[in-house]
Amino acid sequence: MKRTAMRAARPLPRHPRLALSKAKAAELPDDCPAAMSALEEESEELSQLTLIWRAIKLPIYSVALVPLTVGSSAAYLQSGLFFGRRYFLLLSASILIIAWLNLSNDVYDSVTGVDEKKKESVVNMIGSREAIHVAANISLAFGLVGLILACVESGDIRSVFLLFSSIFCGYIYQCPPFRLGYQGLGEPLCFAAFGPFATTAFYLSQGGRTLSGPVLSASLLVGLTTTLILFCSHFHQIEGDQAVGKMSPLVRIGTQKGSKVVTFVVFTLYALLIALCIGKVLPISCAFLCGLTLPVGKLVANYVEENHNDKTRIFLGKYYCVRLHVLFGISLSLGFVLARRLDGFGLLSL
Question: How do the domains of the chain map onto residue ranges?
Fold first, then answer.
């Protein structure tokens, strides 16, 4: 009661819009790192800490972790082997590649003007496009070295080809003269890069020899969850994209139809999972563990459907997609590991 009285005695906030943002924030989950940062956009100024958090895009680096972990687990399912040092070398290199993608994306978006009003753009925060471009290229160079070293150690040249194909998808997505993301081709490129290319490459680099059904089907599932993150990241920036002629899928179809696309993709993700497990392409343990993430998938679909027109709240949509991406990927990986262990005891037949 004393605490309640003390809170009531406090003066009202200086900005009524900020008070409204905090009221909305109370309705959101506490464990979402971007919850307050998204709603504070209604205030006149974003805090420096919020801008830094958005610029770093830490949750987005899960797109480096999940394909590697799923690919490594699929290799373990086949061979029973796991190369820890190689895994962490690949993870470090992949993080550097994602850093290059993020930094160079800000550089090229600043050239076209799409990020002109984006306060969390690294270029706008630092004030030097050239410096960010140099940092991006250094990150790419070190990332490539790490990937090549790991692939050479594995002795499988196919992994090098697939990883370079994945990186090339990222290049033509955002870099001149291609900039295919401006033509609405970002989602197909994202699916190919992080799904069939990266996941399969990591499988080969961890000792997988034959391109088996489990890794190929798992790469499709990883591609779907990764692409969902990119798709949902466009909801709150349609006006800015339209202004510079960036024809993302959401610019073309609108947010209402876009929300239906999200629901369809989530449904497809779990329907495909069940079909692959029934067809014995994936172990049944994957169906059980990935099925536990269904409430998160439902959360993504419902949240986007309810908030697709609210630019402030829909900002959180991509973070819910990241949550689904991570949990589904970890569950898929654990399903592979569990299947191998149970099969070793004669408890599960693949």
Answer: 59-343
